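Objective 1b: paired records.
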Amino acid sequence: MREISLHILDLVQNSNEAGATAVKLEIIEDLSKDSMIIRVSDNGRGMNKQLRQLVIDPFITTRTTRRIGLGLPLMDMSTKRCGGYLNIDSTPGEGTVIEAMYQHSHFDRPPMGNLVETIKSILVANAALQFSYYHTVNNKTLTVSSQEISDILDGVPLTQPDVLIWLHGYLSDNIANLYGGAKDENN
């Protein structure tokens, strides 16, 4: 995958397919340490040790819609190419934590991609999912929770055009503020 945001979509989709009702996405960009950590935690069915070792093999997938799974193997490869790592911590019946670390300034680090559309898509397409998004850049943090948004909207669906426009603006402005102002959302 060419963009980190696409990896994030894949990881959240994996969580959904593992029966998760709650998913937490954390993005931690520490420029002083030259690191970017992407962490997705869920309360899905989890994996045993053998499956954890197999899921980074591109020819293994638990999905029934296709015979190969490229998301985790590609992410593993891209983290290693960028001086980082991919860790999978999982317990059957309790959930999974996937943590990917990239050297932030590495030439081969994939761009973030369109994070606004990624977060918006996760929220809109997974109305029953308790989704939390935490993004830190140095000392600035953005927190978005599907539960908080739902409480504010008081029954108005996220799919309403005015709500989609508001959500796009809210995410765009707040993500840009993490970087000190205007930022091209494709980087």
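Objective 1b, second protein:
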Amino acid sequence: MTTNAGRNRASLARIWLVRIWPLIVLLLLALVLWGDRIALWGDRPEAPVTQVDCATLTSGCSINVNGRQIRFGMSGAPKPLAPFQIWVDAAGVGKAEARFVMEGMDMGFNVYTLRADKQGILRAAVTLPVCVSGRRDWAMILDLDKTRLRVPFVTEL
């Protein structure tokens, strides 16, 4: 036999659950989206950044970092909203990512994973957004295992 007090408690519990579940869902979503930024998924030590000046990105550039020879470049001229390809030739690289940043400007999430082709060259198709202020000065950040390269470049119009 169920008493009125028991029914009232069950009713209050349902009302509480209905009101609180959207908050729980939002908190879980925030944890997933921002967990990496606040280092909840493990401490990732920042790799030292090597600044690379490469005036001929479309022809390719080469650099020796910590005894590792790294060649990289772009196939096609980098233009906003026009796809082009980036490539990296470095022996023994397990994970390769490229992201594109503009100093002092939030340009959104521009991270690309490079995948090896049949010859072992790491490649990714890239499309850059348009900067509403008209700026064209970008930096490509290449993360190759524990090596980080920063390569400034300017897009064509």
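The chain is about 20% helix and 35% strand. Residues 4-34 form the longest helix (31 residues).
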